[in-house]
Structure formats: structure tokens, C-alpha cells
Amino acid sequence: MFHSKIAGVGHYVPDRVVTNQELTNYMETSDAWIQERTGIKERRFFEEGVDTVSGMAANASKMALEKAGIEIKEIEMIVFATLSPDYAFPGSGVLLQRILGLPGIPALDIRQQCAGFIYAVSVADQFIKSGTYKTILVVGSEIQSNIMEISDRGRNMSVIFGDGAGAVVLQQTSDPDKGILSTHIHADGTFAEELMLEHPGSKRKERFNNEMAAKGELLPVMNGQLVFKHAVQRFPEVIKEALDANRLSTADIDLLIPHQANLRIAEYIQKNLGLRDDQVFNNIQKYGNTTAASIPLALSEAFIEGRIKEGDLICMAAFGSGFVWGSALVRW
Ligand code: COA
Fold first, then answer.
1. Catalytic-residue membership of 114
2. H-state helical runs in the chain
3. Weakly modelled stretches of the chain, pLDDT under 70
4. What residue's CA is closest to ligand 1, atom 40?
5. How far is the CA of 19 from the centre of ligand 1 (A)?
């Protein structure tokens, strides 16, 4: 029986650092408000002509491949999670495939927003378990600074989200003591409109027009309090589901990497599960919420900082727009 291990992890962020203080130039907000409600101190914004979602993904992927000691040509499939593809269509997976020079291999885009990376890992894991492929590149990459309005009108969302990318190389292993132990994915479309970007969707006759732009209808909308309420319920639930499925307990977790939605959410999860500070990794302070990129970006930094050792039990969990949520348990 095969399963997959994380052979390497990498990340990439744009150079431009945008502090909370800088945001006060464009909207009525304060460093204190943002830090108190979200924990965020700064985030990265892309520069047009320098960074693209597929280009950032390629940079993160090259780092993951280097860490894994695997050559690009060994990749047999790309699974790409993003809510902000380079083009409305085709997806960014094919663009990453083109940049990496891998014509012919399948490239699949996953659109599960903040849970996109967990869904992507889950899909890739099934292809490896079935014996179809041995080496799969799983990527999360986002440019969100240009779908927010950096103004009073967009301030409830634009202070939270940032740009960045992360990637892992999943590789087949027959070592029963190592790798992805299980993945758990869920959705509840009841709340689809509570965190969404309606346009340019296909529902209306005109996908977008100046009137929509003037009314602010081309901006994402978020019912922040409802999202918060559901997130703090679903995160512990899906983490416990993963632990139960493997007959493990919260005490066994060496490092929890929650999707970096809001530091207050991560602190709530930590308290709810009775985890110590050293059992949880957060880097939202530096990057804000990078949606599908947040978990591999955090995983990569945790690895570089020496927070992950061979044999550690790593738990990754996410919740986001859909609502969609999920977890993955990994023996490193
Ligand atoms: N700066 C200053 N004030 C702001 C602000 C900003 N950037 N954004 C909103 N406000 C104001 C609101 O206008 C509101 O003012 P009012 O009371 O005069 O109407 C007040 O702050 C409180 O707004 P509210 O939305 O109730 O704040 P909150 O305490 O719920 O915090 C979030 C807002 C977004 C930080 C919080 O709801 C949250 O983090 N939710 C989860 C979001 C999330 O994780 N999304 C991603 C999911 S993956």
C-alpha cells in the first residue's frame, strides 16, 4: 500500500512590504485596530509586471523541489490551489506547467479558497495512494491586493488579505511510519454568499459594468462575524476528526499549522484544543491572510525555523469561503 510524504516545501512572497501604518494613508484605520482584531502587522503586495500568481507559484515550487532534491522533470502532475488565477480562464495550473517546462502532464486547478491547499493535498494524495503518480507538485498562490479596494469602503477586508505563494512536493512512499496519515475535507454551500466575490460571475447578463464598479459590487464581501463564528467551530472539529481517525490526541501534535485567517481565530483554536504555544505556528503577523498560500507558506517558514523535525506529527487545518474546511495529518 502506497501513501504520500512531503518531500520538500517552499515559499515565495513579493518584495513590497505594506505595513498597517501605510494603510492608514489610504483609509480610516489604525495599526492598533488591525493588530487587536487580526494580529496582522504587515503584508506583501505584488507589483504589476514583476509578480504573477503562476510566477510566484513557480518560485515557491523551485524552492520546494530544491529542498526535496528532486528535479523538475520528475513531477508527474500539478495541483494548483488559488482564488486569484492569472486569467479568468484557463487556470494557473497550465501556466505553471508552461513555466516549469513540463508539457503533457496533467494540471488541475482547485477553487476552494482558504481551504484550497488542504483540498489540493487531499486530491494529490489520492492519486499517489492509487499508484497513478509518484511525484506531484501541490501549490497555493494568491494575488489578492488587486481585488480589494484599499479605501474606507473596502477596509474591513483589505487590511486582512495579502499576496504570496507556497508549494510542497508530494512523493510516493511505502514507509508506513512516514507521510500523510489522512486528509479530511468538507463543505457547506448554505453560506456561499457570506464570503464571496460575485463578479465577474456568469449569473448576470453583464458580467461587469461601470455601474457595478461605482456601487462597489466588484469588491469581495464578507460577513466577518459569521465567518469567525463558523471558523472557530469547524477548525477544532476537523482537527479532532483527523486525530480520532488515527487514534491520536491533541497531546500528540508536535505542530499545528492553522490556515492563517486571523490570529484571534488561531488563538481560539489553540485554547479550545488545550495546545501549548510551541505546538502552534503562526506567521499571519508578517503576511496577513494569503488564502490558499497560507498553509504552505507557514509550513515552509516553520521548517526553515527548525520547528519541524523528522518524526514530528504535523496537523494542518483550514476554513474558508464556501464554506469549505479540512485537515491533514502528517508524520514528517
Ligand atoms: N479599521 C478600523 N475600523 C474598521 C475596519 C478597519 N480596517 N474594518 C471595519 N471597521 C469597523 C466597522 O466599520 C465597524 O464599525 P461600526 O461599529 O462603527 O459599525 C467596527 O469596526 C466593527 O466591525 P466588525 O466587522 O464588527 O469588526 P469585528 O470585530 O468582527 O472584526 C474582522 C472584523 C474582519 C477582523 C473579524 O470579523 C474577522 O476576523 N472575521 C473573520 C474573517 C476571516 O477570517 N476571513 C477569512 C476567512 S478564511
1. yes
2. 20-23, 31-38, 53-68, 92-100, 116-129, 155-158, 210-215, 224-245, 263-273, 284-287, 294-304
3. none
4. 224
5. 18
Options 230, 283, 289, 315, the catalytic residue: 289
Cβ-proximal residues to 321 (8 Å cutoff; 6+ apart), any chain? 83, 113, 114, 192, 194, 195, 196
Domain residue ranges in the chain: 3-177, 180-331
Q: What is residue 2's predicted lDDT score, i.e. its pLDDT? A: 87
Residue 235 in contact with residue 325, Cβ under 8 Å? yes
Catalytic residue check, 289: yes
Would you state the pLDDT for residue 177?
Answer: 80
Pick the CATH number of 180-331 from 3.40.47.10, 3.30.70.100, 3.40.50.300, 3.30.420.40: 3.40.47.10
* Domain at 3-177, CATH homologous superfamily: Thiolase/Chalcone synthase (3.40.47.10)
- Distance, CA 51 to ligand 1 centroid (Å)? 29
- 180-331 matches 3-177 in CATH topology: yes
pLDDT in the model for residue 29: 97
Q: What is the dihedral of CA 237, 241, 247, 249, to 10 degrees?
A: -20
Atom of ligand 1 nearest to the CA of 225: 37
Ligand 1 in contact with 191 (CB < 6 A)? no
Q: Is 10 in the pocket of ligand 1 (CB under 6 A)?
A: no
Please report how many Cα atoms fall inside a 13 Å half-sphere around the Cα of residue 158, on the Cβ side.
24
Residue 301 CA to ligand 1 centre (angstroms): 28
Residue of 37, 233, 262 to test ligand 1 pocket, by largest number of atoms within 8 Å of CB: 37
